[in-house]
Write a structure and sequence with these properties.
alpha+beta; two-stranded antiparallel sheet; 164 residues; Pnp Oxidase, Chain A
Length: 164
């Protein structure tokens, strides 16, 4: 059933985000396509991380600084960036963003690449173990930026197809 379910779910097109965390020791990041707006009042979003991944472990810590992170909604021009952060054995986020314009979030301290569609700075509100994943419900503390136009980076059947 697992292979059939994986094939079925790959037919769900999803926007691609980059989650970055300032861990104190290092900057880490991962590509996440399981992102969901939850509420405007209060402002909440949800991300789903592989439960045994390093980002999930860092965001599971009960104390700062790991309770804050940034989510960048990637644009279609950031396909290479998404690939960098999806690869296993990837380097630190600082190295992965070395040749990409970015800033450090005022609220989260996380690295935020420029040229996405939007970037949110978040704090962990609730963690929910769910099968082999960790759901992280988070309060949006700040909108670092939002652009009015541009195409999103979409993941569909394991690829990043062009829209249109």
């Amino acid at each position: 059933m697992e292979a059939g379910l994986r094939d079925a779910l790959s037919g769900w097109a999803a926007g691609v985000t980059l989650v970055t965390i300032a861990d104190g020791r290092d900057d880490i990041g991962t590509t996440v396509s399981a992102f969901c707006p939850v509420s405007l009042d209060p402002p909440l979003v949800l991300i789903s991380l592989i439960g045994d991944s390093y980002p999930a472990e860092v965001l599971s810590r009960p104390s700062l600084p790991a309770a804050r992170f940034a989510v960048t909604l990637l644009s279609s021009s950031q396909r290479v960036l998404a690939g960098r952060f999806a690869a296993s054995g990837r380097p630190s986020a600082r190295l992965a963003l070395d040749d990409v314009p970015h800033t450090r979030g005022e609220e989260s301290g996380a690295l935020i690449p420029s040229e996405g569609l939007a970037a949110l700075e978040c704090s962990v509100a609730r963690r929910v173990p769910a099968g082999d994943h960790l759901l992280v419900i988070s309060a949006v503390e700040d909108v670092a930026y939002a652009v009015e136009d541009g195409d999103p980076l979409i993941r569909f059947r394991g690829r990043y197809p062009a829209l249109g």
